[in-house]
Structure formats: C-alpha cells, structure tokens
Amino acid sequence: MNKFVNLTQAEEDEMIQQEFQALLKDYAATRHTQKVEIITRAFEFANKAHKGTKRRSGEPYIMHPLAVARIVVKEIGLGSTSICSALLHDVVEDTDYTCEDIEELFGPKIASIVGGLTKISGGIFGDKASEQAENFRRLILTIPEDIRVILIKMADRLHNMRTLGSMPPAKQLKITGETQYIYAPLAHRLGFFLIKTELENLSFKYEQPSVYQKLEEQINAAIPELEQSFQNFIGPIKKVLDFYKYKYEITSRIKTPYSVFRKMQTKRISFDEVYDLLAVRIILKPKPDESEKANCWVTYSALTSIYKSHPDRTRDWLTTPKANGYEALHVTLMGPDGNWIEVQIRTERMNDIAEQGLAAHWKYKTGSEEQSDLDLWLKSLKEMLDSADYTNAVDFMDTFQLNLYSTEIYVFTPKGDIKKMPTKSTTLDFAFALHTDIGMRCIGAKVDHKLVPLSYELKSGDQIEILTSKTQRPQPEWIEIVTTAKAKNQLKSLFKKEYKAIQKAGQKLIEEKLAKLELPLNNSTIQRILEYYKLNNTTELYASAAKDRLDLSKIETVIFKEKAQSRWVKMWKLNFSNNKKNDKKEEEESSKKKLKTIHLTDADVGNTYKIADCCQPIPGDPVLGFLDDADTVIVHKLDCPVAQKLKSSYGNRILTAEWVTHKVLSFLTTIEISGLDEVGMLRRIVKIVTEDYNINIKSINIDSKDGVFNGQLAIYVHSTEDINVLCMNLLKIPAIKSVKRIS
Fold first, then answer.
1. Which of 218, 379, 408, 439 could form a disulfide with 431 if both were Cys (CB 3.0 to 4.6 A apart)?
2. Residue 692 is among the residues annotated as catalytic for this protein
3. Structure confidence by residue, pLDDT tens digits, 270-318
4. Topology of the domain comprising 408-483
C-alpha cells in the first residue's frame, strides 16, 4: 500500500516543512555564506507552483525539488544559487511560470540556470528522444556557460534513480540505460566518485534485479567477517599513526554489487575469488608544518613497515593527479588474515575533492561559488564541440575528455622523467621542448610504444619517445601542427632564413637560364619574365623558381624565343661544324665545347632534357648529351653502350653536360646487397635506408640460402652522393659483405 495515499493536507505540509528544515540544516553545515532568505523565498515559490501535484509514488511533487536541492548542497557541495535553482528547476517546465518570471523574482543567474535545466528536460530526455548518443551530445551542447546546470541535472538524475521503483519496468530500462551511458561516465569525468558509484549500482539493480539481489545477499553474508578483518588490520596502523601524532580517520568501504559483478565479468572469476571486497581509507589532517604529500608518504612508509605491499598495485596520484582532479596514494597490503586489502591514503582536502568533485575545488580555492576557471573551460569545450560534426558516439566521447583545472598535462620521457606541457601539445611540440635540434630532426614518435605521427595530441600520462633522422628537414606545414610558442618561434626563424636561401637559389636558376641566352639579369629582362608568369615581384619569381612551381624552359622557348634560336645556331656552328684536322683548331674547338657545356638541373628533367631509359643516369654520374631528331637532349652515362654507338655515329650531335642539382627530384636506382644471414638483418637494412637517410624504397627482393643472403633494393635518391654515403653506412654492419649500385 502506498504510504502517501492517506496523508492529510496537514500531514503533507508537515512532511514538506521537515524536508525543508533538513535542507537548511545541510546548508548551515557548509562553509558557504549563509543566504537563507533567498532559499526560503525559492522554496515557498516552488511549493506554491507545484501545489496539488503528485509524483508517481503519490508523494507531493515539491519533495522531489527539495531532495534534489539537498543532494546539491550536501553531496555536491554547491551554494545558495544552485540550491535555489534546484528548488525551481521544474517550475518552468511543469507550470505556467516562465524564465522571465524567475528572473524578475530571483535574478538573471538563477533564471539562466533554470532555463538551461528546462531545455535539457524538455527537449532531450522526453518521450520523443530516441538515440542515447544524440541525447548525450545535445546534453553537452545545450549547457549554458554555467556548469552548475549539469551538476544540478546530475543531482536530479540521482534522485530519480533513488526513487525509480515507482516507475513501470519499460521506463526503468530507458532511464537506467541513459544513466549508465550518460550520467555515470559524466560523474566520473567530473570527479564525483560517490555519485558515479551509486548511479552504476542503481542502474544494475533495476536492469538485472535477480543478479543484483544474489550478489547483495552474498556481500551481506560476508560483512561480519570483513568487519572483523578490518578491525584486525587497522589496529597496528593506529598505533603507528598515533606514534607520529597524526590526526586521522580510518574508514572501510565494501564493494557494491555492481562493482563485484563487473570484476567477476572482466576477470572471469566467481564471487569467492573476489578477494578485495574490503578497502580501507585513511583520511589525514595534515600537520601545519608539513605538506600534504609528505604526510601521505610518511603514512605509506609506516604502512609498508607493518604489512607487505603488492609490488604491482601501488598507485601514485599525488605526483600526477587524475584528469578529473583526483589525488590520493593507493597501496595494496597483505593483511594479518592473509587477504589483500587496498588502502587509500588521502588528506581531508583530497577526500572532499574525490567525493564532491568540482564543488570541492571551488571551496578550497575561494570559499565561494566563484568559478571563472570552469567557465573558461566550458566555453572552450562548447566552441570545440560546436565547431565539429560528431555523428559517432564513440568519437564524441573520446573528444569529451575533461581536463578541468589546469592548462597543463604531465607526460613522461622513455626514462620516466616527468615533463609538463600545455594542453593540446603535439609530439612535435614535445620534441622542441626537449631540444631545438631534436624538434628540427623529428620524424615521428612512439607513445606508450606505439608509433604516432607528428600531429598526435598528447594526453596526461603518455610516455613519449621521439624519433629523429639526420636527413629530416622541417616542413612549412609544421607551423600548423605545433601549438607552443617556443616551437612556433623556432620554426618561423628557420623558415625566414631558408626563405632567403630559397630566393638566392631561385635567382641563380633564372641567371643560369638567361646566361645560356647571353642575356643580363636586369630590369628589362626581369619585367618580361614577370609579365609572362603573371607575378608581382622578384621575390615571388625567385621563390617560385626554386620551388619548381614555374616551367623555366619557357624562358628559352617562349619569352626569349628569338634569342634562343640565334644562340642554338651559334652553338652548333661553334661546336659541331666539320673542321679540318688541324691540331691547333681541334684544341680551340674542344675548349669552346667545354665553354658550352649543358648544365643539368633535376628541376629541368622533361623540359630541357630527358633521362635515357637504357642506362638511367642520376645526378653525379659522368654523362653526355645527345641531340635527337626532335631537338631533345637525351642524357646518357658516359660508359653507356648506347652512348658509345652514338658518339661513333653522330659525333656532331654530342654535347658535354654537367650536373647542377638542387635535389628537387628523386631518381630511381637499384643497389645490390649480400652478406651473412642473421636474425633481424632486413629490419636493420630498412632502418638505415628509411630512418637514418630518409630514402624511399620502391621494392625489396631478398633471397637467403645456407646462411648467405643476396638482395636488391630499388630506391629513390637525389644523386650518386646519396648512394655512396648509404653504401658506406650499410657496410658498417659486420654481416654485410658487399653493397653496390647496379644498372
């Protein structure tokens, strides 16, 4: 029989007043400035607005806002503004009053919070809401710039879960599903451990009632033995702490049915194999002349002098607190009864933060409800979420990683040294933070032994190993990857110097083109070139030329076409006319030929010359040029068999040539390697080629027999110098006996 059905109006009023007085008592026990008058007005207004309305359980509706307000002040630790908002949170949704009415009576701040709560209740968790992922997304996106909205909504959900028994089964499942998917993770992220634990346990209770009941009975049956174990365990601890003259409180915590169930599922064990049902918490009141951390570590030392600790189950959240602000020192000890018992060592402040999350941070920071840091965080979070389309719930949850109270994260080097970095720092930022040279040569990183790119965003607790290469050069797009001022400034300074060098290189290329035509680099010639390429100034011209963005062959074939034609006629006359066999004249002609050498830049491949397919020369190889029937210069190796025939048959078409490479293009060539077969040999070879020298591999073909291997690597290089250096360094591996380039 419903206990609220037969209550008289006087009995209802008395019950309501008792609950309100309990609320004021909870409020009086806080450190908040007491503003009882506005809380009383909010209660009386809400009581009048909800008059005559009942909950499904039959109790007066006002009992729900009162309960939510008590959770807000007692379990979350908020003050008068939040208490009033909690009392009024259903008024706009369920009655004829509006947010304007609330603002007129209680001010804009309370009206704003009530408005935010109304949006959440009406538009998101109503009967029309379908997908929980979208619910979660909207929940975050509709939070006004006051995080108290979500905290009061969390209190509202907690009370609904506590009274869920009056709801029909189908409704229960919907609410528990939302709670487990949305509210419990959110409570965890915001640091409300007790609320998170209760939400999970209540959800489990209504989703799997029979399993819950069985586990609850098993836990209750074990409680007497656990209590005795607790007393036996803490006796020696008390003596030591008393010896140190510490003020402390020791409490016990027994796992909830849901916590036990989850452990049984993940570990695949039975209830009898869950050995850590009992956890002990030591809450210290630090001495005035000692730091909190020192007190905790001294306590840890005292405990481990009494009991043996589990080597793999010590957790230090003093040095590096969790992202939600949690601080504590956890150690698992072997008790006198032969059972492992987890001990959590905290100070009073740490305990408040663990249980009251955000509100405790406010309390210890200012003693009031001031929350500017949180407002800034929430604003940045909303901007981030508003600017992206998160259609996938998992992506959204990953994005919603909270780092509430610090603009910094803590990461580790491979040796375990801790480094503090700004939030949103990338692996490239970390490389520059270690040393500028490391940043400049960074090619990637390993985070927790997994390969990640330069743009990987670091998270607290990451252990980072920076990978470098001697041949790596910073790229312009790195400016967009880095977020720290140091890295940006270093890169900008480098690029400024490089840009000047690029301009000089581009100017040299233009000068070389004009020199071939015997034209000076003056205002007249430059202006014609600028007009053709539609550029504004020489700065753009030289930079574009150096970066191979211009077809410089047009200088000869289009811009100064007439000059080029007359120059070629002159060159042929000088170099390829049939001379009489006069020793002195041959010497003069030879000298003239040397003066008219073709300068080969790798940027001009395909424009002013082509590479012969038969021998495929690369920059650095001794070469010659052959002018074919289409007036295209084909470049051959000097020792190429085809070139030998051309020299003997078409001597008048042979041109001397020299490489003037700018390492713009890569050329394909093949090297042959042989040696003794050892484990990991291929890995070592590939590391030297790709990591140490940043050379791309097109293909690998290696065969091993009777302890000896032979292989061929098709690689892309800039010049013969690259090949020579690579071959010498491959030969430094003792097992490699031969490395050579093959045609």
1. 439
2. no
3. 888 887 788 899 999 887 777 888 889 989 999 999 998 887 788 888 8
4. Ubiquitin-like (UB roll) (3.10.20)
